[in-house]
Design a protein that fits this description.
The complex is a heterotetramer of chains A (about 100), B (about 240), C (about 550) and D (about 300). Chain C is α/β, with parallel strands linked by helices and about 550 residues long. Helices cover about 30% and strands about 15% of the residues of chain C. Chain C folds into 3 domains: about 25-220, Glutaconate Coenzyme A-transferase (3-Layer(aba) Sandwich); about 220-235 and about 250-350, no CATH class; about 350-525, 3-Layer(aba) Sandwich (Glutaconate Coenzyme A-transferase), CATH 3.40.1080. In chain C, the strands form 4 sheets. In chain C, strands 1, 2, 4, 5, 6, 7, 8, 9 and 10 form a 9-stranded mixed sheet that branches. In chain C, strands 14-13-12-15-18-19-20-21 form an 8-stranded mixed sheet, with helices on both faces. Chain D has a domain at about 10-170 and about 210-235: 2-enoyl-CoA Hydratase, Chain A, domain 1 (Alpha-Beta Complex), CATH 3.90.226. The chains are: A alpha+beta (about 100), B alpha/beta (about 240), C alpha/beta (about 550), D alpha/beta (about 300). Chains in contact: A-C, A-D, B-D, C-D.
Chain lengths: ~100, ~240, ~550, ~300
């Protein structure tokens, strides 16, 4: 297992509702726990993944995710079982959409 | 272990246990507490590492039901020696889980009808064969040389894809993988391991059978399962898990 | 001038000698052309000669498995050094013949399940590979320089005269028999049963020498069955992009689909998503395709007008029989397939091939070769190649050709659409895009003349991933081509190394197209779009006519 | 029509129970994960693969749990099992109208085998405690992993089971039996045989489940409401009489069918018309065909 941590400062989109869990820790899939937290305007993402050695790819996927949403005061935790970047991005977007009441 | 040797050690006052195709049933005399008169108890179990198929599960259930109907409040000792559920297509076709559940329910019914129920793993206890017998008792005990497990480490390694030597190493320190009664003791699955005078142990156990399922609490006290009881308490109580 | 004393009929004489030996060996056990299965080894020992070229029928679907087992069990002291000709090495006994020394040389096309063992036997010096072919090449060589002395084939049934019914799974049989029978070779066939009257005659009896009723029906693999339950949301998204970005864009009417879940997803989106775009009757009308169960909903919706097949597919027999307007069906009602003709059809009569692959390099070359496995090609290279001999026009062919030639002073012609559809990462985070194909290393290991490329980059017109579509027809330089590929390679190292500014420029020019550029909302890419989500749904769609193999059921 | 089989545990809770009514006990944000998986280098899940809580069903207060088959096959570990046991014990105090267990599980989680085995037995006893308190327990099985092992036993300790045709209810997985006794004993790749032997239709015909539904969450919801209404008429607790009836049924099952080799023979012996067509029947047609022939109490 490998843990990766990301912190993006100065977002502008806050999410109000209670913590949500999206996705499942199954082969090629992941779960995303997303919750509001006082982080001084930052968005943090903690990843625990069964697929080791893909830090650079995670970094790029997380960067693009934050580019899309500009989240502020949001804490995200991920348990991953070898999901591809496409699936990771999809789940993250679903998690945000769920918080926004769009799903 | 030969069940007759065991029975002689457990019941010096005498017993009338018979074996039919690995199924044990009968009665035995057990001394009362502090010199009180001996009492007759029912003995039900299996021997020869019996695979638990539909017939033997049903036979045990029959013996339990008969005891409940004919001998109210008579204590029951469940003798456990099984290699687990029988691994046959026929058993699955006939719904073996229903037979095992039926056995479990019969034991539970007996408990609710005032029968003290004690389990004893005297040789081998594996997964499905154990769960509806010894693990359904008020309290389950084991002999020191008993084997208790869900499956062997090689098979576990194959299924979990964790290398066997890693499992073997972890098993030394973690009761959660390794076979053996002391691990089940630490996790609360066993009330105690019996050394020495078995007759005395069985007499005491029958008289001191706990009411209610305190295994998670025992596992917490003994350090073998540190989270089960806190999780149960958290759900029943304020919703927050107090970890040690 | 004529050569003095030159005998011109040595093959005939040799054939007569073999038949004579067989008759002598089998004696009264030979009834006409039929012999008991217990005597198959005696027959083979009698008719075979050391070093013979032997064609054993077997492809990715049906297998002459009984004859294959018999061959593998021969005494290598009596029969050895055989030169095997085979479409596909699928069964363990196909390699046992080499392991045991009965055979020594191999010309073949594909060895999927046995690819690892092939590589080991080559390394051990027990197997000498002549060449790895595509199906069409291999069949062609049977007629030119590799005619079999003996062929071992499989048929559904034979009559007393040796006439054969090969039925829906005719597949490779016709060219094998023809190449053998008309070069004085010996044709031996295993049949599931011998009957008085055949439903129809697929191979005339006078081309057949020996018939044996095998103890078990021949083995057949349901290779083209994909359980819709296993199609992912990402595959649905890619299928939407394929339909809107390529099928609709080029009005693709005649096509071939490669095998896999990506293309199964497209098939299952035709009656739903494609229909909602008004594409029925405009795309996907005529197919060179095995009878994919996933195509049933599109057939039932009237989307698909005709299907010509390489082989059949287990469980589809009754459905095919009930849809004779769509499939190639004989007067008896059952399907007839023909791999050689369907390969030609896929090559010349289709406007598009779309299929998956394992690796794509920066030139667009694609390969399914991986280290330690000599797997070969099968049919994909013939499907996934521009048919340079094609002369008839169609809108899709013309548009592709026009895009490739725009701005260049060359004579107009069309081009086949060759689309590679891949997710950027395969299982276990293996990137589908690489700087250098594993095929290079495999070629070095196995001492091949050239790296085993499945589809050459200069034939590939589009690469479709979940990140977008790269239209290589529109690229005007090697650099553009490379950046277009990097532009759809997502988070793979190849994709991360793209020149972002240049990729945005390519996007402006329509060379790289994202889902949103096509007006596709990714959130709508759910499994609910699939016309069938389970095998049971396929059975329902077929009106109960499709009977899936046992391994695909959950009922 | 949302598929129950394709839904996650949480989606099942959302759609089987009254919309928006589910209130989770120790939800994923508390991150109570398995203490045993990390040392095996196996991933954890924030809910350890099960969600438990209270909700309403058709306006009635109920407790509910749903196992996530995607995470370790829904297998029961220490925390997972304790969540189920905790829910059942809390039910004794709060006395909901019923407890619903949406099971999808391979049984004991081998990564924490000993703890899982004890945990399953704790769940079993807790289920029977809830029944003894007069609260019916209803099991729904409709996930692709079925309900196997100790949890297959737990299921049969409930008052009633609702299954889909695609669901399986059994003890040992076919792969385990094949590994132990050979492919001739049980060909695990012959999925038609696997489902004939362990699937919803066979269980329904034998009387091991009380209702069979098409694979939609709506159908499971409707069946759960209807089954609970039917259960309301009788006692929830075990009784000697009920167990004697069950005993007789199980004994007769061995006597009538014990020598048979394939479930098809059983269906034929039951008098089900065209038994070989049974797997192909849609659920309504199947229920109609089975009505006069199926065993057990509904």
């Amino acid at each position: 297992m490998e843990t990766l941590q990301y912190r993006f400062e100065r977002g502008d989109k806050r999410l109000a509702s209670a913590a949500r869990l999206v996705g499942v820790v199954s082969s090629g899939n992941l779960e995303v726990l997303i919750e509001a937290a006082p982080l001084g305007g930052a968005c943090t993402i903690d990843v625990t993944t069964a697929a080791t050695g893909f830090g650079a790819i995670w970094g790029a996927v997380m960067h693009d995710f934050q580019q899309r949403w500009q989240l502020a005061d949001v804490r995200i935790a991920i348990n991953d079982m070898g999901a591809t970047p496409a699936v990771v991005s999809l789940r993250l977007d679903q998690a945000v959409a769920t918080m926004l009441g769009e799903a | 272990m030969d069940w007759t040797t065991l029975a002689d050690a457990l019941f010096p006052l005498g017993h009338r246990i018979t074996e039919h195709a690995q199924f044990l049933s009968g009665t035995a005399d057990v001394a009362g507490p502090d010199g009180a008169p001996a009492a007759t108890i029912a003995v039900i179990g299996t021997t020869g590492h019996a695979p638990i198929g539909v017939e033997i599960a049903l036979a045990q259930a029959r013996a339990v039901l008969d005891t409940v109907r004919a001998h109210p409040r008579r204590a029951i000792l469940l003798l456990v020696d099984t290699q687990g559920q029988r691994l046959r297509h026929r058993d699955e076709m006939l719904g073996i889980n229903s037979y095992m559940a039926h056995l479990g329910k019969c034991v539970d019914l007996a408990r609710r009808n005032g029968h003290a129920i004690v389990g004893l793993v005297y040789d081998q206890a594996l997964s499905g064969g154990f769960i509806t017998s010894g693990l359904m008792a008020d309290a389950c005990y084991a002999l020191p040389a008993a084997t208790i497990r869900v499956m062997g480490l090689p098979a576990m390694a194959r299924i979990t894809k964790v290398p066997e030597d890693v499992l073997t190493e972890l098993a030394k320190s973690n009761p959660v993988f390794a076979p053996g009664p002391e691990n089940y003791l630490r996790m609360g699955g066993l009330q105690a391991i019996w050394d020495g005078d078995l007759a005395q142990h069985v007499a005491q156990a029958l008289h001191a059978a706990p009411s209610g399922d305190a295994r998670a609490a025992l596992g917490w006290q003994r350090g073998g399962r540190k989270l089960a009881q806190p999780v149960i308490d958290a759900i029943a109580g304020d919703g927050h898990v107090q970890t040690a | 001038m004529t050569a003095p004393n030159r005998a011109w009929n040595t093959l005939q004489l040799n054939r007569d000698a073999r038949l004579q030996r067989a008759r002598a060996t089998l004696g009264a056990d030979l009834a006409g052309k039929a012999l008991p299965s217990a005597r198959i080894a005696d027959l083979l020992h009698a008719v075979l000669e050391c070093g013979d070229r032997v064609c054993l029928e077997g492809n990715n679907q049906k297998q002459a498995d009984f004859l294959g087992q018999a061959l593998a069990g021969l005494d290598p002291a009596r029969i050895n050094g055989l030169h095997m000709l085979q479409s596909v090495l699928a069964l363990p006994e196909h390699l046992d013949v080499f392991e045991r020394g009965v055979a020594a040389k191999l010309d073949f096309s594909f060895s999927g399940p046995q690819a690892g063992r092939v590589a080991k036997l080559v390394a051990a010096g027990k197997l000498d590979i002549g060449a790895i072919h595509t199906y069409l090449e291999l069949f062609s060589r049977y007629f030119v320089d590799l005619p079999p002395r003996v062929c071992l084939i499989a048929a559904e049934a034979a009559d007393r005269h040796g006439n054969l019914y090969t039925g829906p799974n005719t597949e490779d049989t016709p060219p094998i028999v023809e190449a053998t029978a008309f070069k004085n070779g010996i044709v031996i066939v295993q049949v599931n049963r011998i009957v008085d009257t055949l439903p129809r005659v697929d191979v005339p009896g006078d081309w057949v020498d020996f018939v044996v009723e095998s103890p078990q029906p021949y083995y057949i693999e349901p290779l083209f069955t994909r359980d819709p339950a296993l199609i992912s949301e990402i595959q649905v998204l890619m299928a939407m992009m394929a339909i809107k970005g390529i099928y609709a864009e080029y009005q693709v009417e005649r096509l071939n689909h490669g095998i896999g879940f990506d293309t199964a997803a497209i098939e299952l989106l035709l009656p739903t998503y494609a229909a909602s775009l008004g594409l029925q009757g405009k795309i996907g009308r005529h197919w060179a395709l095995n009878p994919h169960p996933a195509l049933i909903p599109a057939i039932e919706a009237g989307f698909v007008e005709s299907v010509h097949s390489f082989g059949s597919e287990l469980g589809m027999e009754d459905y095919i029989r009930a849809r004779p307007d769509v499939f190639a069906v004989g007067a008896d009602g059952s399907m007839r397939s023909n791999r050689a003709l369907c390969q030609a059809a896929g090559h010349y009569a289709c406007d598009m091939f779309i299929g998956s692959t394992l690796q794509i390099d920066l030139q667009g070359n694609s390969s399914t070769a991986t280290l330690g496995r000599i797997s070969g090609f099968g049919g994909a290279p013939n499907m996934g190649a521009d048919a340079r001999g094609r002369r008839h026009a169609s809108p899709a062919w013309l548009k592709a050709g026009a895009q490739a030639r725009a701005g260049r002073n060359v004579i107009p012609r069309g081009q086949k659409l060759v689309v590679q559809i891949v997710e950027t990462f395969r299982e276990h985070m293996q990137p589908a895009f690489v700087e250098r194909l594993d095929a290079w290393e495999l070629a070095e290991q196995a001492k091949m003349a050239i790296p085993p490329v499945m589809i050459y980059g200069d034939d590939v017109t589009h690469i479709l991933t979940e990140e977008g579509i790269a239209n290589l027809l529109l690229c005007r330089s090697d650099e553009e081509r490379e950046q277009a590929i990097r532009g759809v390679a997502g988070y793979t190292p190849v994709g991360l190394a793209r020149d972002k500014r240049m990729v945005e420029n390519l996007r402006d020019r329509g060379i790289v197209t994202r889902a949103e550029d096509l007006g596709i909302d990714k959130r709508l890419a759910t499994r609910d779009l699939l016309a069938a989500k389970t095998m049971k749904d396929l059975v329902r769609a077929s009106g109960g006519l499709y009977n899936p193999p046992k391994r695909f059921r959950n009922w | 029509m949302r598929s129950y089989l394709e839904s996650t545990a949480r989606e099942r809770l959302q759609h089987v129970l009254d919309a928006g009514s589910f209130e989770e006990f120790i939800g994923p944000a508390q991150r109570i994960v398995s203490p045993h998986l990390a040392q095996l280098n196996a991933p954890v899940a924030f809910d350890d693969g099960v969600a438990v809580g209270r909700a309403t069903l058709d306006g009635q207060p109920v407790f509910a749990a749903a196992q996530e088959g995607g995470f370790m096959g829904g297998a029961v570990g220490e925390v997972h099992g304790a969540k189920l046991t905790g829910l059942l014990r809390r039910a004794l105090a709060e006395r909901p109208a019923a407890v619903l267990l949406l099971l999808e599980t391979g049984g004991v989680r081998l990564h924490e085998a000993n703890a899982g085995l004890i945990a399953v037995s704790e769940v079993m006893r807790a289920v029977l405690d809830v029944r003894e308190a007069g609260i019916p327990v209803l099991v729904l099985v409709g996930g692709s992993n079925g309900a196997f092992g100790g949890m297959g036993i737990v299921a049969r300790c409930a008052n009633a089971i609702v299954m889909s045709e695609e669901a399986r209810l059994a003890m040992s997985g076919p792969e385990v039996i094949e590994t132990a006794n050979g492919v001739e004993e049980f060909d695990s790749r012959d999925r038609a045989l696997v489902w004939r032997t362990t699937g919803g239709k066979h269980r329904y015909l034998l009387g091991d489940c009380q209702a069979i539904v098409p694979d939609t969450v709506a159908a499971f919801r409707a069946a759960a409401i209807a089954t609970l209404a039917a259960l309301g008429a009788g006692p929830a607790a075990l009784s000697v009489d009920a167990l004697e009836r069950e005993h007789a049924m199980l004994a007769e099952r061995i006597a009538r069918f014990g020598a048979m080799r394939d479930p098809l023979e059983i269906w034929r012996a039951l008098g089900v018309p065209a038994p070989e067509r049974v797997p192909l029947l849609e659920i309504d047609a199947f229920i109609a065909a089975a009505a006069a022939h199926r065993l057990g109490e509904s």
